[in-house]
Model the fold of this input.
Amino acid sequence: MSFTRKRGFYKQDINKTAWELPKTYQTPTHVGSGAYGAVCSATDKRTGEKVAIKKLSRPFQSEIFAKRAYRELLLLKHMNHENVIGLLDVFTPASSLRNFHDFYLVMPFMQTDLQKIMGMEFSEDKVQYLVYQMLKGLKVGVGGRHSGQGLCGEVEQAVMGCGSCHLQFTFLSPFQYIHSAGVVHRDLKPGNLAVNEDCELKILDFGLARHADPEMTGYVVTRWYRAPEVILSWMHYNQTVDIWSVGCIMAEMLTGKTLFKGKDYLDQLTQILKVTGVPGAEFVQKLKDKAAKSYIQSLPRSPKKDFTQLFPRASPQAADLLDKMLELDVDKRLTAAQALAHPFFEPFRDPEEETEAQQPFDDALEHEKLTVDEWKQHIYKEILNFSPIARKDSRRRSGMKLQ
Done:
């Protein structure tokens, strides 16, 4: 379909896909592709910096895809924290709403993600620094209201130079920052945590796609890092779902092995209960799900494992933090702010860096049922109104190297 393209754009085929880019972005190179889009790296000739550009795959093919594209754009625009991926630019080659069919998101380019380096041996100071950054990001959360309906998204692994990997697109959220914005990640895992050679970390995935979306097929949930209350919908949940995930990731960094590698949901729960112990009546009465209640009541009581024995190579402080993050009861599990105050992070802690979002994420259209054309109008307006914000980057450099 031919249409009027804005001046200053050029067209290029990248990995058999037509891209239309502003001349600002040079030497585009394919990074990866997945169900919801493709990503290339490019050089911003204004700054000389490498960026990641995502082209959404047919964002207006249905109401679900259009709403998802709108939410992704809004979340990325909202995020302004050094440990959360944010939006550097957004553009469309279309010269008017009438011929608006595609748009592109520009984000910082990160060199790798935690998933790809999980096999390496992490010293405890690296674990401290990386987990500290995760929690700072999370303290300001983004993730929709706490409805109990899990969001099953993943932030863009595509923001990273991961070669031939198959990319699934998800949202990201550094916890302290993200949570303060009223957002919950719900699907934090090593592949959603981008890192560079200086051990600097960004949360990538904000949980765009929802379980209830019938069109979002082909999505494979990684349950190993998910909080039991999200996997089983057995009780209310809050922002500490992300803290459980951080605990699982931290444990894996310390041991080199996935902590709860369930073959299915029941096996996942069995493995979790071997560590947390089978809870008693106080916990069981909080469960909303009758089947979950009767199942837990049918199990013989067992105590929580001693985390100093479970993680013999970890320091006592590391074991104590894991014990408090991997708490079955969401009302007793640490929040991001409480975890940041734990003595384990004393060597790196700077409360001035532990910022919170200036304002909550505005999801006013979250429950609106709009047509594709209406979503398209909202997205086009957001693109026209976009102006880059000064990205926060106040971190003291740790002097630490990943390898």
User: Anything to note?
Assistant: Residues 141-175, 207-220 have pLDDT under 50 and may be disordered. Strands lie at 9-14, 17-22, 25-34, 37-44, 49-56, 89-91, 104-108, 112-113, 193-195, 201-203.
